[in-house]
Records
---
Amino acid sequence: MKISREDVLRVAELAHLELTPEEIELYRGQLDEILSYIGKLEKLDVSNVEPMAQVLFPAPADGHPELRDDTLVPCDIADAVLTQAADAAKPFFRVPRVIER
Amino acid sequence: MSATSTWTISGVRDALRTKEISARELTKDFFARIENRNRELNAFLALSIDRAYAQADRIDAIIATKSAKGDPLPPLAGVPIAVKDVISTRDVTTTCGSKILETYVPPYDATAVERLERAGAVILGKTNCDEFAMGSSNENSAYGPVRNPVALDRVPGGSSGGSAAAVAAGLAVAALGTDTGGSIRQPGACCGIPGMMPTYGRVSRYGLIAFASSLDRIGPLTQNVTDASVLMAIIAGHDPNDSTSAAVPVPDYGAALESPLQGIRIGVPEDYFGEGLDPEVREKVLAGISLLEKLGAKRIPLHMPHTDYAIATYYIVATAEASSNLARYDGVRYGLRVPSTSLRDMYKKTRERGFGPEVKRRIMLGTYVLSAGYYEAYYLRAQKVRSLIARDFADAFQRVDAIITPTAPTPAFRLGEKTADPLQMYLADIYTVTGSLAGVPGISVPCGKTKAGLPIGMQIFGPHFEEGRVLQLAGAFEKAGGFTI
């Protein structure tokens, strides 16, 4: 068994998911099967292989990627963005209290 | 034109030029087609009616003023196009097939949408898809599955199932899809139309709601290869709003379609023709390869040794990125919020109610493979194997100009056939995820049908930024009758 019920609960907590008891058991079984399948990667020797960190832009020899100029451009959609929030008090998003006075 | 006739981009152009039909009439005709078929197919989630007619009227005004002077129409003038619902459209609801974004209305357009509209396209609406583009059958949409117009008891493929079904059923001349592990090519194959995944970085991802950022690509689903090349020419190119979009010049894809295949080297990797491949699919794809040889291509056998590791690698890399990208859905800034007295509880309740089962499963898997104690064994190892898979492609392209494979191991399966077994569903992408991981371009083209009448897809991969060569092969294949081989 690759993954226990405790693992599922730990991961759900990290991922901010409140799972039902049925989901916990379902996902434990399914993730276990998927992780067993994924285990086939252990057969490969990757000791001399670099991880693929970029798809198309290998870092130049000096390690410093080419950067764009840092220029300010106007972005005037704050009001439109705020209209999408469940609870906004311009210019803020409002959430339940996080700090007790 | 009858209600069932198939429009192409050049057909629309000619009809508008000769005033056989106006852009407004054509738009109206397409909305009528959607009205007729969508209840059955469930391909569209939203229609952008006002926006479509406003654009059609703009095109009709251009035709009225310009025809006198003989000025050319913009390349997509009046062409009705559908857009997958993971791509942002200003003032048009964009749900990603998810309950968590049921009421989300983006304040801006994706670059690809903006470019299509600037080129004259009429955006009809948003197409159904697997939730956050996670799936291979469109059955993971929170708004119900899409049916395959070729066989209504079958899936249209996924995740761009709505886009593929809409084009195949003639409810749009073309559509934008997105492809992370096969989500344009596999539904294209299932519905019997061409579907192209461009090189990573070729088309701006600005406004594409992220699933796996190192894999996600926007591309076209069309009636024919010429239309795919026309759409590619418009959506390709650098965009300052996407730092991963490449400043590589976009060649003339139309000219590429005219070049003969003489001497082109096509690699056929044995690894894509092994166990699990449906015999009818194998037979047709091998016949397709023979046809390309008759057209002058030179067939070269290949071995791509890490092919068998691609699904395992993909489901680590893609879910890891997804778990990070989808952390933003917390009920604070947009989408669903389930109120609670504590912030953390609000996050958890919102995500529990808003996400469907496959999205939760992938977030869980991605969080697990990135978590302390497992990162090296899973994520880092997968990133190394990804290098090996990319190297398989780089080595192959030293010897060949393109690689030909089946698109999917089987034709479209039945609705419900694989929903209980996520791993079996993942294996539907076994031939497409390789190119996704390597970043190369690929197209699926129709390659005949099974005896039961289900479409089969043949996949053509090319080297990075060689979309022209991929389209050249696909176009020659189509012209020689390969689609109905």
---
Amino acid sequence: MPRGALLWILALPCAALLTGCALGTQRFGIPIDASRIGAIEIGTSTKADVLREFGPPTAYAALPVVPPDPAEALAENILAAVEADNRVFVYEYREDHENFFTVILFTRFRRQVLSDRLMVFFDAHDVVRYVAFARETPSATE
Amino acid sequence: MKRAALAGALVLAALAPCGCGLATLTFDSTIGPLTPAPPLHDLTVGEEFHVTETGPVGTLGDNALLRPYPRDVIRRLSAPSSFWAAAQGIQAFLTSISPIANRTAQVGGSTPTEMPPELQPGTALESALALLGPPDLWLRRESGSLLLYRDASRRVWSFYVGVPPPAALLVPIPFISSLRFRYISERERAQKLMLFFDADDALLEARLGVDSDAEVQ
């Protein structure tokens, strides 16, 4: 067999190995158990009840409040009082899906970020005011 | 000597994709226990991975170090976070040298594409939150609130004629990286739902918007 033909025979499988793909998912946080959301009653449950059901939140924040007159609000400390009335627990679970495929001449990369979020809003007396939950991930509790 | 080197390279090329592959997992679960060879999967991708029905799983962790070389550098080299970082680097390099590349990214997926019929003027804020979930943005004023729900997607097509810059570093011809034509088409879209509530948290107006294709070439 000519040497050139032998090289081609060896080179072709090597070239075939130059294709590749990678599938990966990064998961952040702990999946939110949606079946436990029913235990939170608006106007009745307290911050302690929410902590007992879901544990420590991913974030503890206040809704951004826009006062009609910022200077007056700062002077009379109105902003702090209003923000205290708009505290929120945020629970988040996020999945970052990545698909990668290459044949060297062509490469395709796809990324999809999906998250489940539970927000529990409290009034100034730490009683639940609103509850909001949205699920985007396909496999959070499977 | 050349033949030995070529044979060695071919053997390495054949072994390289074995890390998490089907052949490795099949070997480890069938013939592996009968042979004196250690589990190939653990040997190639480290012991901190475990295999599930969806593939190898590992904890990346987030322990930042304030030193360039940790004391247990050898163990860390086989940690899942090192493999993940290496995979990201390899993907970025291969994408950059590929003459045709397509990248898409999508964030979110829960914003409705059509206006929900339940959202009528007067709908309570509580009902809207129960229907749509947490908003991406919530601004409160004395006179009312604004809730914003948003999904974003990005698509990039790039096309090269010539030698892409990273690959040109490997070609020993002067100015080879300058002899190229590059075309990039980039599109970003956002889908938004805005809800306006009055001071009593009753819905005043709901607006659904989809960005028209904004292309950069």
